[in-house]
Automatic annotation (TrEMBL):
This is glutathione-specific gamma-glutamylcyclotransferase. InterPro entries: ChaC, GGCT-like, GGCT-like_sf. GO terms for molecular function: glutathione specific gamma-glutamylcyclotransferase activity. One of its GO terms (cellular component) is cytoplasm. The lineage of its organism: Bacteria, Pseudomonadati, Pseudomonadota, Gammaproteobacteria, Lysobacterales.
């Protein structure tokens, strides 16, 4: 696999956008940024972006696993016609010091069009771990992803908590995400010692 992007993207993001003098910026969250807003924001609104789908294909060396035993977290993958539901936050540019650090394990900032669930839209930023980053794990069957998540843990806690919090947050948003919900089902079946249908 090509690994043109380092597993540590902190410096790359800091070299990126200068925010063009904007006093406020929208950032779209589709993973832990939906349920864990550990940063100050001016406003948050459920939103969606088009042409991307959420996948548990990114390795986590620093939050839900370690470099020796990476966990699995979500990234976005291009898919024609796909819609990804998440949460948009209006923040001041200084918040990106924290976000760039938090998302440093392979994620780069990209500009995207956001559509708010209650109407209207805006341009914003989204952190995506592209397939050419060194921590990318790629696809695997959903039952294997569930096994991997069940066995992983990192400085931010058990990998299973990431999955379960994300699934609960998506349900709260009314989002249908067959990939996330299938992995959640497999994890719960593992807990019960049965195979998920
Ligand atoms: C995001 O939540 O938008 C990025 C991925 C993550 O931190 O889980």
């Amino acid at each position: 696999m090509r690994t043109a992007v380092s597993a540590d993207t902190l410096a790359a993001n800091r070299r990126l956008a200068r925010f063009d003098g904007h006093a406020e910026v929208w950032v779209f969250g589709y993973g832990s940024l939906i349920y864990k807003a550990d940063f100050p924001y001016l406003e948050r609104r459920p939103a969606r972006i088009h042409g991307w789908t959420r996948r548990f294909w990114q390795g986590s060396h620093d939050h839900r696993g370690t470099p020796q035993a990476p966990g699995r977290v979500v990234t976005l993958v291009r898919e024609r016609g796909a819609v990804c539901v998440g949460m948009a936050y209006r923040v001041t540019p200084d918040v990106f010091d924290h976000l760039d650090y938090r998302e440093k394990n392979g994620y780069l900032r990209f500009v995207t069009e956001l559509c708010f669930e209650d109407g209207g839209g805006a341009e914003g930023l989204v952190y995506i771990a592209t397939t050419d980053n060194a921590a990318f794990l790629g696809p695997a069957p959903e039952h294997e992803i569930a096994r991997h998540i069940a066995a992983s843990e990192g400085p931010s806690g058990p990998n299973r908590d990431y999955l379960l919090h994300l699934a609960a947050a998506l349900r709260e948003l009314g989002a249908d995400d067959p990939h996330v919900f299938a992995i959640e089902r497999h994890l719960r079946a593992l807990d019960e010692g049965v195979a998920a249908g």
